[in-house]
Amino acid sequence: MTMNERAGRWLFASIAGLLVTCVLLLIWASFYQTQRRLDLSELALQRTQQLLHIRLDGFFHELAEDLREEAAAVDQGDSAVIFGRWFPLLDTHWPILAIRLADENGNEIAVVREDSTYRVMRTTEGSKDGPPILMRYATDGTRAVVAGPWLRETDHDPREQLWFSKALEETQGEPSWTLRVRDSSAVPVLQISHLIRDRTKDAPYRIIEFSVDLTRSPWMDTRSASLLQAGILIMDDEANTLVDLNASTDPGMAMAVDKALASWKETKTHTTFTVEGDSRSYRCLVSAYPLHGQALNTGVVLDLAPLGVWLRPERIALYVAAAMLALLILLLIWAWNRKRSSDNRIRKQAKRNRSQELKLAKALGEREVLNREVHHRVKNNLQVVSSLLNLQAMRLDEGPVKNEFLRGKRRIDTIALVHHKLYGLADMRNVDLSLFFNDLVKALADMYQPQSRTVSYEIGTTGIKADQDTAIELGIILCELVANTYQHAFPYATGGHVEIKVQSVEGDLYRLAVKDNGKGISDGEHQGTGKLGLEIVEALCEQLDGSFHMSMQEGVLFEVLFRMQHEVNGNSTADLDA
After folding, report:
1. Global pTM?
2. Which is nearest to 454 in space by CA: 517, 366, 391, 378?
3. How many domains does the chain have?
4. Which residues have CB under 8 Å from 174's CB, separation 6+?
5. Lowest mean pLDDT, pick from 45-59, 125-139, 197-211, 284-298
6. Which long-range contacts (CB under 8 A, 24 or more apart) does 199-207 make?
7. Which of these, 391, 457, 388, 386, lies nearest to 417 by C-alpha position?
8. Beta carbons of 435 and 421 less than 8 angstroms apart
9. Which helix (H) or strand (E) holds 40?
């Protein structure tokens, strides 16, 4: 398995793991929807409870302020208080059912709202001398007497009432609340009473009281959007209901409110609980609401079905995420199948490529062996020619002819040396000129002993490599120039230095420079028979599509400009074309 295949498998495995994680998260989110629904119902219950408590606070504060205002006005006469203040107050404050004013001697005056009249009752000294006197007054603007006076059938003493004693127990000057439960069929009534202390020390104290029906208060209007879908309960610790409000006509909500009241009466819990009604679930929450002198409880019942609207965006998001995840899984399966097919094709192609590479490597190896064999045979043939020339020169007398034979023999030896050093290299397609030139110059130094013994040399090729044809021609040029340097540049045993450099000029143009610090060349010395014979160098330069230049700079500088194909991935373009 290749690195790419392993990387691909790891990538697909990572994506598959991520998709599995997403699936698990979606499953968890779908199960969490139920808990989320309960959490939302909890928030809705708390919010509704807060709104209900705010409304109760406003209602009770308003009643307390009205009671204090009436307490401040009780010094007026009874008729002025009843006709001037209490009748108008009852006309405008529908939740107030009755107003009473009593003193410590048992005297009381009370105004009670009836269906279409106001009933006024006067009690003297706790009915000591007889029952209270009753009269009815019209509720219209005339305030005319409708009936009476007549005596009440039973005696009445206000000092025996709970609201009276609660007001007496109050020490902070605040109104006190009590709950009056008359019978099982009647709705309990809240009573707020306030102690009035006269500035005169010996004057009797008085207590004023309002009887209140919470269901008549506009503060309890459930048509508000915040309370529209909720069932509202207000009750005491014994589950006596003061308010049972339900703006909805849904019978399921009414049934749920009744069940919630019965369940709370048994458990008295102040935590959220659930009741079932009409095949639906309802969440309920009962909280304590303390009044000054009376403990109340407020209950809220919510239908869970409308809460689904709140969760609809989340459900839609889950459905969309599930659809997209399913699409991604299908795409992953499709991509995996395509990748497997592609991997199979790649493996088959790689197998064919390896087979072709083996065949090509074998062919290149055979070609390399053949090239080495050719160079070896060329070297051997040149050595044979060199031997024949040497035998021929031995038969000649000393003189110019023999010298020319020997000079030709040396040039042939030089060419044989080039071929010998070339096929000894490891890579013949990309000849390292630094290594090749070093071998050649070292062999030439051995060849031209003792002239070369005191001559040093330095080679710099800047890592340039050449194909074997160019390397052969450059090798012959270098041998010719260095041989002539060893022969003619240093006639004295004072030593010298030869510097050889190969540099890239631009594009495919290169420069070979051979510089010595010898005696130099006089005019015309490089021309004529038996001289340096630089015409060979010029001819080879023309084969390299280049030129040859010579100058005197504290010695002699030979400069060869030649062209060579650029290297591509370690091979010249000429090799690639071949």
Report:
1. 0.51
2. 517
3. 2
4. 64, 194, 292
5. 197-211
6. 204/103, 204/104, 204/105, 205/103, 205/104, 206/74, 206/101, 206/102, 206/103, 206/104, 207/101, 207/102, 207/103, 207/158, 207/163, 207/164, 207/167, 207/168
7. 386
8. no
9. helix 3-72
What's the token pair of residue 530?
Answer: 């038996």
The answer to the question of residue 338 being in a domain is no
**Residue 551 domain flag:** yes
Residue type at position 16: A
Q: What is the CATH number of the domain that holds 455?
A: 3.30.565.10
* CA torsion through residues 364, 368, 373, 378, sign: positive
CA–CA dist 457, 545 (Å, integer): 28
User: Which pLDDT score, from 0 to 100, does residue 335 have?
Assistant: 82
Three-state SS for 98-148 is EEEEEECCCCEEEEEECCCEEEEEEECHHHCCCCCEEEEEECCCCCCEEEE
Token readout for 514 is 């051979």
- Hey, what are 493's tokens? 């045993």
In a domain, 66, yes or no: yes
**pLDDT at position 110, please?**
93
| Three-state DSSP string of 237-254 | CCCCEEEEEECCCCHHHH
Cis peptide before 450 (omega within 30 of 0): yes
Q: State the DSSP string of 134-188.
A: EEEEESSTT--EEEEEEE-SS---GGGSHHHHHHHH--SS--EEEEE---TTSPP
User: Environment class of residue 287 by beta-carbon count within 10 Å: exposed (0-12), middle (13-18) or buried (19+)?
Assistant: middle
Q: What percent of the chain has pLDDT over 70?
A: 84
Pairwise CA distance, residues 195 & 184, whole Å: 30
Task: Say if residues 300 and 272 touch (Cβ distance below 8 Å).
Answer: no
| pLDDT of amino acid 98 | 93
pLDDT of amino acid 576: 35
Domain boundary among 256, 276, 303: 303
Residue span of the structural domain in which 283 resides: 51-303
Q: Assess if residue 223 is contained within a domain.
A: yes
Q: One-letter amino acid identity for 278? A: D
Q: How far is CA 176 from CA 145, 159, 196, 294, in A?
A: 33, 15, 12, 8
pLDDT tens per residue, range 239-248: 788 776 654 5
Instruction: Say whether both 296 and 444 belong to one domain.
Output: no
Q: What are phi and psi of 111, to 5 degrees?
A: -120, 125
Last residue of a domain, one of 303, 325, 354: 303
Which of the four pLDDT bands, split at 50, 70 and 90, describes residue 571?
A: very low
How far is it, in rounded angstroms, from Cα 416 to Cα 382?
Answer: 6
Strand partners, 477: none
| Unique residue bearing structure tokens 């050449």 | 466
